[in-house]
Specification:
The chain is α+β, with helices and mostly antiparallel strands and 353 residues long. It has helices spanning 6-13, 34-45, 118-123, 182-187, 201-216, 255-264, 287-301, 322-327; strands spanning 56-67, 90-96, 127-130, 146-154, 159-169, 220-223, 237-240, 272-274, 312-318, 338-345, 348-349. Strands 6, 7, 8, 9, 10 and 11 form a 6-stranded mixed sheet that branches. It has a 5-stranded mixed barrel with strand order 1-2-3-5-4. A hairpin with a 4-residue loop joins strand 4 and strand 5. Helix 6 (255-264) runs parallel beside helix 7 (287-301). It is elongated.
Length: 353
């Protein structure tokens, strides 16, 4: 009968571990309890005074909001003292410093379940000033989503944060789409799988320009692409003329809408269409609306971003139509004073992400 000796095993497998437990923490669960392991990890990550002596922090610019309130700015890190008179907007800047901010700020695009919206939560952050040496104009917003460095005038109270440098944009932060909470959208029956009020950044430029054109023509505009309301079922611009005192004629007669359609047939407007007969299948539009729409066509024809060679397409999807007559009898559509317009950019219809 052969005898197995310790020396024989050690030659193949190496020396055996000592039978006595090693002092201190180790990965063997048989010799270290959960409490000890958690305590060690927490102590390593949250050592008291771990920020002692640190003066500059990394942050993320999460908001830059216009205001007409006057400001008085001074301090050790600041060299500018200024009072801006009424009518000259400046910007209030909000910076998230992850090392110091203990409150959870949910940047989920689905919105908050209750309480404050994302924009309201961001607004509760301490307002950060811009260091004078950065030569940043007060009447211009900071690039939201960009990284930055921050110094505090009073680090003990985490007051008077000053932005000392601004880096590249690394986050896509959109505060507007969360103005309606998920619970509110669900309660109103407008909750959907897509994110209402958020469109592709590539399409924002065209929406901004088109919105500016409509507003310059004195239309009252509702941007239901990026600020949908509880009645919004699809992304679009709604615009309307001011209330008219001219009563519409026989609803079966639509001379104003027909006159506008004649303009749409011109070759210069090949990229602008009407969906079916939605402008007037519930009644005519007003004379004022007809005249303003014809002027609008001329402006779009001369704009390189919206003319027939631009690659963009526009479609009138609603006017004094049967849908609004039936579903929204108190809207301006019913009186021939409201129009819905959708935009297609480079062959892609602008939709919510």
């Amino acid at each position: 009968m052969s005898v197995i000796k310790i020396e024989d095993i050690s030659k193949v497998y190496g020396a055996l571990n000592a039978m006595a437990e090693n002092p201190g923490l180790r990965g063997d669960r048989r010799g270290a309890d959960t409490t000890s392991m958690l305590s060690a990890v927490m102590e390593e990550a949250f050592t008291p005074n771990c920020l002692l002596g640190k003066t500059e922090y990394n942050g993320i610019i999460v908001g830059s909001f216009p205001t007409l309130l006057p400001s008085y700015e001074s301090g050790q890190l600041y060299t500018r003292e200024e009072y801006r008179s009424s009518g000259e907007p400046r910007y209030i800047n909000k910076v998230l410093v992850p090392e110091l901010e203990c409150r959870p700020i949910n940047f989920s695009p689905t919105g908050q379940k209750k309480g404050l919206t994302l924009k309201q939560r961001v607004y509760t952050l301490e307002s950060a000033r811009v260091k004078a040496s950065l030569d940043h104009e007060l009447d211009q917003p900071l690039p939201v989503g960009s990284v930055c460095t921050v110094l505090y005038g009073d680090i003990n109270l985490m007051k008077d944060p000053v932005i000392t440098s601004i880096g590249a944009k690394v986050f896509d932060i959109d505060l507007e789409h969360s103005q309606v909470t998920l619970a509110e959208r669900w309660g109103s029956g407008t909750a959907r799988t897509m994110i209402q009020g958020r469109v592709s950044p590539e399409h924002d430029r065209y929406l901004d320009k088109l919105l500016g054109i409509l507003e310059r023509e004195k239309f009252e505009v509702t941007d239901e692409y990026r600020e949908p309301n509880r009645h919004t079922t699809a992304p679009h611009f709604h615009f309307q003329t001011r209330a008219s005192t001219t009563l519409l004629q026989d609803p079966n007669s639509t001379p104003n809408a027909d006159a506008f359609r004649e303009q749409l047939k011109l070759p210069d407007y090949d990229n602008i269409t009407e969906k079916g007969s939605e402008l007037s299948n519930g009644g005519d539009i007003t004379v004022a609306m007809k005249d303003k729409l014809i002027v609008l066509l001329g402006i779009l024809r001369s704009d390189p971003d919206f003319n027939k060679d631009s690659g963009q397409e526009l479609e009138f999807t609603g006017g004094n139509d049967e849908y609004h007559q039936r579903k929204h009898p108190n809207s301006r559509h019913r009186f021939g004073e409201g129009i819905d317009l959708v935009l297609t950019v480079g062959g892609t219809r602008v939709e919510w992400e």
